[in-house]
């Protein structure tokens, strides 16, 4: 097995749940941070051994407190994030832009700021962030989303540059459209043939937190179906 104790941020989302179930099935001890307390209670019923803390990771103090309560751990998986469409960049509402930047980037910064010292105390470990295919292949009408997910790649690369020699392996997964109930409701007529099953993404995450991926660091890992 790779790392024994994994902290999952965003564990109550569709992808977070899939990651938690995948890692649990393969013997990992799990700790999680979420915001939706009813979803946390439901997940706790499915995975009784999962240790959970509720926190708003856009808040630096809450992030620090949550990480402190859940430490120690051997790996971090960040699947916090959100998506929104909008007008062209010059018409984008500044408040909406900042909110999505906070959700996709500030949360990762706050998590990293709190969690990296924990990993350093344990001589390193994997740190996986969740960006998006759109960070490499942007499309119109989603400027805040694309910019925030692209910035997340820079954050991952800085973790790699500054901490790789101290044993921390940072990598980013870049999913395409994830096949979730929410996405199906939002896009009822869409062609889902290229959508990605959350369980497939979870298997990639499991690889990245395992010893099998030990030589891999600072990489962008695409996770989307072939056209």
TrEMBL record:
Keywords from the named record: Oxidoreductase
> InterPro entries annotated for this entry?
NAD(P)-bd_dom_sf, SDR_DHRS6-like, SDR_fam
Presence of keyword Oxidoreductase: yes
**Pfam families in UniProt:** adh_short
MF terms per GO, please?
oxidoreductase activity
State the family named in the UniProt similarity comment for this chain.
Belongs to the short-chain dehydrogenases/reductases (SDR) family.
Q: What is this protein called?
A: NADP-dependent 3-hydroxy acid dehydrogenase YdfG
Give the source species. Thermoleophilum album
């Amino acid at each position: 097995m790779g790392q024994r104790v994994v902290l999952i941020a965003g564990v109550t989302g569709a992808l977070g749940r899939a990651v938690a179930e995948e890692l649990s099935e393969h013997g990992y001890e799990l700790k999680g941070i979420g915001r939706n307390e009813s979803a946390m209670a439901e997940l706790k019923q499915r995975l009784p051994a999962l240790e959970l803390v509720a926190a708003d990771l856009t808040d630096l103090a809450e992030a620090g407190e949550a990480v402190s309560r859940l430490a120690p751990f051997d790996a971090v998986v960040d699947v916090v994030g959100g998506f929104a469409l909008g007008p062209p960049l010059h018409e984008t509402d500044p408040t909406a832009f900042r909110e999505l930047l906070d959700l996709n980037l500030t949360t990762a910064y706050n998590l990293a700021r709190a969690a990296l010292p924990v990993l350093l105390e344990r001589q390193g470990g994997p740190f996986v962030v969740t960006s998006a295919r759109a960070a490499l292949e942007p499309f119109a009408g989603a400027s805040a989303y694309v910019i925030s997910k692209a910035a997340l790649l820079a954050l991952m690369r800085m973790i790699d540059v500054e901490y790789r020699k101290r044993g921390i392996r940072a990598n980013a997964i870049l999913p395409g459209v994830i096949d979730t109930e929410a996405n199906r409701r939002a896009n009822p007529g869409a062609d889902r043939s290229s959508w990605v099953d959350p369980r497939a993404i979870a298997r990639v995450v499991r690889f990245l937190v395992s010893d099998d991926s030990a030589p891999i660091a600072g990489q962008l890992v695409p996770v989307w179906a072939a056209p």
